[in-house]
């Protein structure tokens, strides 16, 4: 081959490569360094192995690693566990850990820590039993192998091993005599994740610094994360506009978002909340008359105009909810009764149920509660539903709770007719969905249990089967059957999927947009160009 | 000697008041609806009955209220004010972290209001029918009527966004490098907007009060006598007039220190100022009993001390009541 042919080939290949690789890829090559300032809220503490909730879980996912993490399609990808395998009966899961992982105090992360973390989560985390009730024990044949022994097949095991649900905490720190709930390390944690604790001033800020010995070589890219603990929405909006902060997750509906979205340096997305699956609904206390009648519950659901909520109250930002699963869940089924606005049908159902119109056209009165801390998703909806039920002859009286504890006390003790509520699905229905519908979870005094008092043994049977079914297609079919059944019986009337938004600086590379969004590790996030 | 006895008597009254505050606060907080364990469970996204029981045991909420009160008194006598349910930190540590922020905000706001109020009121009193006097009167009515949070948000939009002269939140630039002078300047830079917001309500009152008091003093016999003796108007107004007219302002300012504390809650929320006001507000919502009790205790102590100081300074400033008890 002549020199000129060789040269032409090399040149051609070079040009081909140049045009095949998107130009943006050069600009988006991860770079090390920089500080990301994050708008955040006050947290109880940072030990995400025993504490749920956004405020702890977002920094928790940076401080603590998990065995796996989920990608954008809910698929588990290796994290602290480099590989795993399961036995044919689904009762044994073997996880092989990476060899080079250390806690932030330099001590190695071993299978003993995995076993200790699982026991801690199972005993102390609000979803511990739902996630790991089937795990009988964790065997540790060597420092880098953890063998989970289960007493029944549990397909929800893998998503439950995400960093925010089963944070790997150091046994050597937490096996000290202090009770885990008040352990000093909850405030100054020794973590296992990409960022280590540096400084914390309650009500002011939390600083996490890059952990140089993180087990994924070269990660994380950012030097520092600063979580600014902020409350006032005007102050938050100005800080984002003036680029004093660069990232805000879990922003609910607000006119500020519309304004901020128009700025050149801010991007807004609703991606990254699929694993949370936030649903808002009207819960019925089915113990109380007339709500014990399915027809009454259906009539109420037919009287709610979900399009009006979406278009007028939420400025087009929310999506109507059709059932107990968020549409982002892999188990979502749209094959259910949708309850589009139909006042004629609602009136007919109420007549059939034996509740004719009486004085002033009123059939009966109900009391409605709502959680008082978030007006856009609670109070406004309660006020709308009061008006929406008037035309069908239902008189709704709103009952205000002065604060969150008062509302939780009323609802958890079944002292309500109707209440507006927002509940998270979490990445598997076993974690966040079953709790609302199964008979065994009717527990007085426990918030976000089955406070409605709904009980259908057939539903329990389907959910029990689904919790053990290893075949995804069969499992999905079981959940479809469940969705069809509860949307007929309506222990709650689902109203909308809560539209959380993430606002981030346009020069931020790889913003965390997996199904966990901000609750995923920020190890891949980098500054294309750090703002001054 | 009489002054020393007075100090002693005021201190004893103060201690009795502190005990009454402890007792009353404890009773009021515990009869209010809402369970701290439920609040913590709510923050966790729910909890099983077993976890609820473990929370109650960990924080001593499984004991009866009289038992909890005795435990609380026992701790207080040892100087231990307990551990915050929410923050999991000793409440004394949390409060000591926040006191400087609130005191600096409150004292700066109060001093701003007193100094500017005295100056504006004095100038306005020189020509009670003039335009400046009218401006002070209208301004003080507007300042008094405007809600603090609205003033805060307006100042924030004006001076942190449209004309970005000041920071929009916080007490400092986090992770700022530099010596103590740079840190102090950064702190003062953050202090201006919140302190001015808080000062406005009080400034409105003090300027009006000072104007009225000055008019009263300038019309009195001794001022007429000073003028008859041939003293210049400057000496009459700024030396003798102001000294006498200032007393009501000082008295009101002392009594209102607790109100400044109250106003600080709103200002701290708007400006994200990490002070006691915000901590108190949140501890009420979170039913964080140990923290709330400690904040109320510290606030009561501060207000009692300030009232004693006001009382004593009043006597020092006015020779006529020096010997009175």
Walk me through the structure.
Chain A is α+β, with helices and mostly antiparallel strands and 532 residues long. Chain A has 18 helices and 21 strands. Chain A has helices at 3-20, 23-27, 54-63, 111-124, 128-132, 157-160, 171-174, 233-241, 255-261, 294-303, 306-313, 343-352, 379-389, 404-412, 429-432, 434-437, 457-468, 472-489; strands at residues 35-40, 68-70, 76-78, 81-86, 92-97, 135-142, 145-150, 195-201, 205-210, 224-229, 247-251, 266-269, 278-284, 319-320, 364-370, 394-399, 418-424, 492-497, 501-505, 508-509, 526-527. In chain A, the strands form 5 sheets. Chain A has a 7-stranded mixed β-sheet, with helices on both faces. In chain A, strands 14-18-13-17-15-16 form a 6-stranded mixed β-sheet. In chain A, a hairpin with a 5-residue loop joins strand 4 (81-86) and strand 5 (92-97). In chain A, helix 10 runs antiparallel to helix 12 (343-352) and helix 17 packs antiparallel against helix 18. The radius of gyration of chain A is 25 Å and the shape is globular. The relative contact order of chain A is 0.15. Mean pLDDT of chain A is 91; it is low at 15-26. Chain B has helices at residues 2-31, 36-43, 49-58, 65-77, 91-126, 131-145, 148-162, 180-218, 221-228, 233-255, 257-270, 276-285, 289-317. With 325 residues, chain B is mainly alpha-helical. The radius of gyration of chain B is 24 Å and the shape is globular. The model of chain B has no long low-confidence stretch (mean pLDDT 83). The chains are: A alpha+beta (532), B mainly alpha (325).
Record keyword descriptors for this entry.
heterodimer, A: 532 residues, alpha+beta, seven-stranded mixed beta sheet, 18 helices, 30% helix, B: 325 residues, 77% helix
**Estimated helix fraction of chain B:** over 70%
Query: What would you report as the Rg of chain A, rounded to the nearest angstrom?
Result: 25 Å
Q: Specify the biggest β-sheet of chain A.
A: 7 strands, mixed
Query: What is the SS-derived class of chain B?
Result: mainly alpha
Main sheet of chain B, how many strands, which sense, barrel?
none
Please state roughly what percent of the residues of chain A sit in beta strands, choosing from under 5%, 5-15%, 15-25%, 25-35%, 35-45% or over 45%.
Answer: 15-25%
Quaternary status: heterodimer
Percentage of residues in DSSP E strands of chain B: under 5%
The geometry of chain A reads as: globular
Uncertain runs of chain A: 15-26
> H/E element string of chain B?
HHHHHHHHHHHHH
Biggest contact = A-B, 54 and 54 residues
Mean pLDDT score of chain A: 91
Q: Total number of β-strand segments of chain B? A: 0
* Helical content class of chain A: 25-40%
Query: Separation of termini of chain A?
Result: 54 Å
Helix count, DSSP H or I runs of 4 or more residues of chain B: 13
The N- to C-terminal Cα distance of chain B equals: 12 Å
């Amino acid at each position: 081959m002549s020199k000129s042919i060789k040269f032409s080939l090399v040149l051609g290949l070079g040009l081909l490569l140049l045009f095949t690789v998107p130009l943006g890829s050069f600009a988006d090559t991860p770079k090390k360094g920089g500080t990301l300032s994050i708008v955040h809220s006050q947290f109880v503490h940072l030990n995400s192995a025993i504490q749920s909730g956004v405020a702890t879980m977002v920094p928790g996912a940076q401080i603590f690693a998990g065995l796996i993490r989920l990608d954008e399609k809910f698929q588990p990808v290796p994290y602290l566990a480099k590989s795993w395998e399961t036995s044919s009966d689904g009762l044994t899961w073997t996880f092989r850990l990476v060899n080079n992982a250390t806690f932030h105090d330099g001590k190695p992360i071993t299978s003993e820590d995995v076993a200790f973390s699982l026991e801690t989560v199972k005993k102390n985390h609000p979803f511990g039993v739902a996630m790991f009730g089937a795990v009988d024990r964790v065997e540790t044949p060597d420092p880098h192998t953890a063998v989970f022994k289960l007493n029944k097949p549990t397909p929800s095991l893998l998503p439950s091993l995400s960093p925010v649900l089963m944070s790997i905490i150091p046994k050597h720190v937490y096996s000290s005599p202090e009770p885990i709930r008040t352990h000093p390390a909850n405030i100054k944690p020794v973590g296992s994740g990409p960022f280590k604790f540096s400084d914390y001033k309650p009500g002011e800020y939390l600083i996490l610094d890059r952990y140089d010995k993180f087990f994924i070589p070269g990660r994380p890219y950012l030097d520092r994360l600063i979580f600014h603990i902020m409350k006032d929405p005007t102050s938050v909006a100005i800080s984002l506009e003036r680029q004093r902060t660069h990232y805000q997750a879990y922003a609910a509906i607000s006119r500020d978002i519309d304004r901020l979205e128009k700025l050149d340096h801010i991007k807004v997305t609703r991606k990254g909340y699929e694993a949370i699956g936030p649903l808002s609904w009207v819960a019925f206390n089915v113990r109380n008359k007339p709500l014990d009648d399915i027809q009454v519950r259906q009539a109420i659901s037919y009287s709610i105009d979900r399009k009006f909520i979406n278009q007028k109250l939420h400025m087009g930002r929310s999506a109507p909810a059709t059932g107990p699963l968020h549409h982002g869940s892999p188990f979502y089924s749209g094959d259910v009764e949708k309850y589009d606005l139909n006042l004629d049908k609602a009136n007919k159902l109420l007549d059939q149920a034996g509740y004719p119109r009486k004085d002033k056209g009123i059939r009966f009165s109900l009391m409605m509660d709502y959680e008082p801390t978030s007006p856009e998703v609670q109070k406004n909806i309660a006020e709308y539903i009061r008006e929406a039920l008037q035309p069908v002859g239902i008189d709704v009286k709103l009952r205000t709770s002065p604060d969150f504890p008062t509302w939780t006390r009323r609802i958890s003790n079944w002292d309500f007719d109707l209440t507006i509520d927002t509940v998270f699905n979490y990445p598997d229905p076993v974690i966040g969905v079953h709790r609302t519908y199964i008979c065994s979870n009717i527990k007085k005094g426990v918030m976000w249990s089955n406070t409605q008092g709904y009980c259908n043994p057939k539903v329990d049977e389907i959910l029990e089967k689904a919790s053990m079914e290893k075949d995804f297609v069969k499992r999905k079919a079981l959940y479809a059957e469940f969705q069809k059944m509860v949307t007929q019986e309506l222990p709650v009337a689902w109203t909308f999927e809560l539209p959380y938004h993430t606002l981030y600086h346009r020069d931020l590379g790889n913003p965390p947009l997996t199904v966990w969004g901000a609750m995923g590790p920020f190890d891949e996030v980098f500054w294309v160009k750090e703002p001054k | 000697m009489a002054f020393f006895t007075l100090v002693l008597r005021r201190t004893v009254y103060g201690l009795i008041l502190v005990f009454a505050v402890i007792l009353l606060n404890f009773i009021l907080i515990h009869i209010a609806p809402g369970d701290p364990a439920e609040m913590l469970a709510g923050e966790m996204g729910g909890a099983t009955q077993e976890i609820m029981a473990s929370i109650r045991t960990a924080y001593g909420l499984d004991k009866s209220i009289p038992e909890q009160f005795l435990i609380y008194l026992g701790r207080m006598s040892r100087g231990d004010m307990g551990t915050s349910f929410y923050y999991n930190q000793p409440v004394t540590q949390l409060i000591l972290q926040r006191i400087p922020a609130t005191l600096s905000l409150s004292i700066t706001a109060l001093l701003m209001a007193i100094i500017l109020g005295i100056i504006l009121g004095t100038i306005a009193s020189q020509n009670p029918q003039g335009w400046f006097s009218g401006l002070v009167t209208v301004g003080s009515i507007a300042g008094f009527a405007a809600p603090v949070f609205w003033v805060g948000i307006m100042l924030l939009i004006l001076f942190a966004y449209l004309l970005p002269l000041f920071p929009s939140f916080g007490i400092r630039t986090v992770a700022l490098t530099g010596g103590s002078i740079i840190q102090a300047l950064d702190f003062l830079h953050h202090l201006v907007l919140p302190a001015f917001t808080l000062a406005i309500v009080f400034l409105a009152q003090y300027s009006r009060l000072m104007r009225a008091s000055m008019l009263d003093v300038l019309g009195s016999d001794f001022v007429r006598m000073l003028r008859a003796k041939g003293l210049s108007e400057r000496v009459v107004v700024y030396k003798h007039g102001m000294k006498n007219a200032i007393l009501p302002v000082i008295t009101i300012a002392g009594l209102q220190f607790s109100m400044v504390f109250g106003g600080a809650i709103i200002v701290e929320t708007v400006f994200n100022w990490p002070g006691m006001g915000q901590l108190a507000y949140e501890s009420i919502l979170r039913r964080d009993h140990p923290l709330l009790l400690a904040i109320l205790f510290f606030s009561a102590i501060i207000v009692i001390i300030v009232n004693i100081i006001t009382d004593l300074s009043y006597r020092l400033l006015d020779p006529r009541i020096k010997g009175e008890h």
